[in-house]
Protein 1
Amino acid sequence: MKALQYTSFGGQVEVVDLPRPVPGPGEAVIAVAASGLCRSDWHAWAGHDDSVHVPQVPGHECAGLVAAVGPGVECWREGDRVTAPFVHGCGTCAWCRAGQAQVCPHQTQPGFTDPGTHAQFVTVRAADTNLVGLPDTVSFAAAASLGCRFATAHRALTQRAHLARGEWVVVVGAGGVGLSAVMIAAALGAQPVVVDRSADALALAGRLGAQVLVEAGPGALEEILQVTGGAHVALDAVGSADTAALAILSLRRQGRHVQVGLVTEDPPLPLSRVIGWELSILGSHGMAAVDYPALFALIDQGLDPALLVTRVVGRQEAARLMQEPSGALGPGIVVLDPGQG
């Protein structure tokens, strides 16, 4: 099969020929129809995650068809349309049995611990736990954005922050997960405020439902507080000391902050404010397969992930883009079609 692969951190990403995977017990092999290019892939390639070993096939968001199943798989058959979250739970621990596979202590992640989805085929372990049936109304390209960015934003806002209709939510960073958060917040009837340094990203956020657009810079916090009086919820989709602090300081008393942007080192936080104002600081790490029906329900009600897909590229272009800073992808989500050269 054709796949993207790098053999050293920060090194060349190449299109190579690799053996097609064969499913073991409990596993399924997916013929990948679409795979999202995500900032997390760049972090892995750059060597920021010690769970990654080389050589590695990147990619952790995919949708496609079940190509083969191993012994013991009961819920899936060849030809089923499927997607999967980027965290694959073991399927047997207490966390997985409770529907919390996203924090499984034995989790694996394609593109990080295991070969990833930027390939013609990928293996999903514990398929009965981790695969998600894909409705015919959701295209493969749109579904490729669900496994990481939409799923992460959905769980962060609904199950971690418990965002309610009419509440102000500040989203720092208008990349894939930030724009997904804007769309989900708008669909839930909340009032999204978006902060970013890119005029193009802010414009796209406005088209997707953001009510207030704030250019990142020295006056951003004052502008947010002036409009909202302090947000009920804040979400940092970037992952830096400055963006996390901005998100937290934008909250009103007893507000809720959710950190989803990956950090390369733990940043200092304004803990005096956290204590004095009784702020809640929450982490959010993807979403388990069992939680997808609520996201699909929003899609049935009009949420359209396809609006975020700005480009579909082939293998060679994806290999080039993998080595570029995340901003080089531009606003929206870029998707790899592994069947294209």
Note: The chain has a mean pLDDT of 94.
Protein 2
Amino acid sequence: MDWIVAPDSDGRALRDVFPSMLAAMGVESFTDTIGIPPCRNALVLLVDGLGHELLRAHEADAPFLSSLQHSPPLTAGFPTTTVTSIASLATGRCAGEHGLVGYTFAEPGGGLLHPLSWTVRDSPDGDRVSLMERWPPEQVQPHTTVLERAAAAGVDVRVAVPRHFEGTGLTEASLRGAKFRGVRELGDLAAELLDAAESPGPSLCYGYHAGVDLLGHVHGPGSIQWRMQLRQIDAFVQMVAERLPPGVVLSVVADHGMVDLDPAQMIDADSDPALQEGVRLLGGEVRVRQVYARPGARDDVLAAWQDAVGESGSVITGEQAIDEGYFGPVTDAVRPRIGDVLAVLRTTGVIRSVAEPGESKLRGHHGSLTSAEQLIPVLIAAGG
């Protein structure tokens, strides 16, 4: 389908950012496939939700970001969601290898893991319980991270992320190997980035900002609230970039883009019996649903979902998605986490008004394979 932008394999994906930065620093065993200027220290700032097309459409609100060296956009990977993207960035692998295959996905106990909280519901209407002991992050994502490899090579590796991320399942699964630097506000984040920049080196620091994504979800990308937040992050990046010492490179990237959808125009899986028949679990998120069928029911589930989604998206089997490379190489351990049926949406979304009341009311969404969600910027500022 011509609207689908599948993850690439030519070295210009989010998973290639850390290896490219480390190669630019001269660290052995890493390759620069993106084109990073040579440097002694490197900073990577991930602006959650700042898609390539959104930035291009709102250059007036981000004059500094828009003035930075532009390379062709990267691809985020699949699904285009924060959990998967951060794991891809930090491990240098696709979802089919690192195993964090979506916003929610099947876990061995028969429930849906919510990786942002590393919890599962103890019953359909029950409380969330932690899986940190029963399905620990190191088991879910067992591969050595790029950060661990860099630290072993003598790089001073740091992550400057919100303080409440410390010790979480996602942090332990993805960001192992780095010194944790918890931040509260943008001032903290700026100070941590600049402290790493001024290190004798070699030093790699990863920073994260969530505000653009949050306001995009709540008010919609392009809303006045979203635009004012974009202006703040533009000024923030300029402040940091103007203070970079010689020999330091800052790369600004994103984990996905975002689309604006009317909640009233969504398909509601919780109010349509046809979308519940034969379904054991319904994971993923509004823009890409992973449907886990009961034994023997996959083909009926596929037909029902294809009929409901129609021209609004693509509904395929999990095997087809794997064969077409959506998840990259898929290991035997990861295959059971991928849905039997995938609904990849183009013009609408599939909400769950009962099970996910908060998410169902949001304006901004991501997860699918449109260019608005898949393409992400890579913007370079160099000190000196």
Note: The chain has a mean pLDDT of 96.
Protein 3
Amino acid sequence: MSRTLGASGPAVSPLGLGLAALGRPGYITLGHAEDFRGERSVEAMERQAHEVLEAAYHSGIRYLDAARSYGQSEAFLASWLKSRGLGSGDVVVGSKWGYTYTAGWRVDAERHEVKDHSRPTLRRQWKESQTLLGPWLRLYQIHSATFESGVLEDTGVLEELGQLRDSGVRVGLTLSGPRQAEVLRRALELRVGGSPLFSCVQATWNVLERSVGPALAEAHAAGWGVIIKEAVANGRLTARNEDPALRPLREVAEQLGTTVDAVAIAAVLAQPWVSVVLSGAATVEQLQSNLRALEVKLGDEAHERLRALTETPETYWAKRSALPWN
């Protein structure tokens, strides 16, 4: 069931594990506070991260995704990789730069992260990521590239990323917000030293927010790896959300004898341009539920029913922005 991360990329599993909810005590997933049984010390969360990582590896997951701003995610991942004795070819690890974690391990922090896409931040965070993840780090991504940050027009940053690319590290970018498609198409045009700078994109696509789909198909056709995040929309496409508007999703899941999150993830896996879909599981139980997506086959009728859930990008991203840290 393995896939490749782009036309010339490494082999990866169709389902990956993202550590956004595992590396810090607060996140915007619905019900995140319930996932740690009141134990959110660094030590307790490292143990839980290791449990989920071990279950993921045992289940065949071979792509692992972290970021400098995900609290201790890189450190938790590094300590698990070392304790497991895995080699650099056993898993594919991706991380991101551009946000700095500022919550001080508090859920009620005024600001959880600060965005800065400058060249000094890239240099500092690359060194930090490389120090922790060393030989396992095979993909480094701009975290949430937008037109507003100016990162795709910063020649100094682009030159620095070009040097990373030339050293053998795959360089990618992640997207966020209602203009994902426009940013991606700009990134597809970028060349540094006469060669394409990027070879991978990570974007939000789910049954609620489909707008970036055509641009992702273009990236896939250009040989890029395509990683999908937020397949369950930060918990909105799970059993925790009792919104009556999600009735079609629940009905499809009931008919197929599976979970709503598995159906949501299966809808993403069915897209022909997808390399990896990230599970954002914070518990082993959530991971096991997500993994059921690999067994789900959605017919034309199911896809059509799920299409009725689609929101406008503006509506989707406004709702996401309103989700509380918990």
Note: Residues 42-58 form the longest helix (17 residues).
